[in-house]
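Handout, page 2. Input:
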Amino acid sequence: MALLIKNLLDKITVFMLLCLTLYGLLYIFGGPHQLQNTAPQSYPTLLPKDLRRANQENVGSGSPSSSDAAKNWSAIQLDRKTTLNNICLKYNLTRSTKDFTNVAKQLYVEHSHKIIYCEVPKAGCSNWKRILILLHMNLSREPEEIDHEAVHSRSPVRTLTSYPQDQWMKYLNSYTKVIFTRDPLERLVSAYRNKFLHSHLNHYYSGYVARKIRKHFRISRTHTTHVTFLEFVHYVLQEDPEESDSHWRQMNKLCDPCNIQYDVIGKLSTLHEDASNVLKIIRAPKNLYFSSAQQYPGEALTNEKITKDYLKNLSKEYLQEFIKQYQLDFYLFNYSINITSSF
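Output:
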C-alpha cells in the first residue's frame, strides 16, 4: 500500500511540473498577459493633462495613423515648451514685475470650452477670434460668415481684464491656454503690407500713423506716397517696445510666455495642424474647423519669399538692430535668423 501511494504521489508531482512548464512557455511566448499589453500605451506623463487626454482619445479611435500623429504632435509641443522654458530660465524671465494688465488685455476668455487665447496680431488671430465667437454663442455656422469688422470690433468674447482681478488666476490655472506665434521678420512684413498698403480701408494707419512716420522719418517730407518699408522699420525701432502697436509689438511682451504656462504653443507655419489639435483638446463641435479666410481675398499671404524681397530694402545694420530688439521672440519660439544670411 505504501508503495502504491508513493507511485501516485510521484505521478502527481510529475503532472504538476509539466503544468508549470507549459504555463511558463505560454507566459513567455504569447500568454494572456501579452494580449492585455497590446493596447497602445498613454503618452509620457510629462505632458500637460489636456495633451494626454487628446492623445488618449486618438488612441482609442483604433487608428494607428491617428495615434502616431497625436504622439508626434505632442512631442513637438513638448519640444517647443522645453526650448521656451530654457530661454526663460537662462535670461531670468520667470519673475516678471511688470504690470500684468497689458498682457491680460490680450487674453480672450471663452468659458463654455474653458479656453484662453492670447491674441498675437498677424499670426492668425482673426480666424481664432472667429472660432471663439462661434464657441461662445454656440452657433453652428461657417467661420467665414463672421466678417472682419465683427471679429475685431463687435466680438462678444471678453478679455481677462473684463473680469475682477481676483478671478484671473482661477481662469489661468484651470483653462486651456493657447498662443500662436510667427517668425518675427515675416510678421513685421505682414504688418506693413496689411496696415500701410490699403489706404482706403486702414484710415488710422494710412492716415494718423503714416503722417507721424512721414513727419519724423521722411527726408523729402512728401505726403503723396505710401510709407515705405524702410521708413516703417525705422519707426518701429524708435518706438518704446512696451508701448508699441500690438501688430508689431514683441510677442513675448504681448503674451508673457515665461510667466503664463501655455498648454499649446502653435505656430503659423503649422497653423492648421496645431489648430485642429486645440479644437480636439477643448472638445469643440466636430463640424467646427479653422478657417483660411483673409481680410483681402486674392492677395498673396506674406511668406518667406515675400519677406526676403522686402528685407532686401534694408541695410545689414537695420536688420541687426531689429534682430537685437526682437531677439527674445527669436529665441523663445525657436525662429531662425538665417533668413538674413544673404544680405
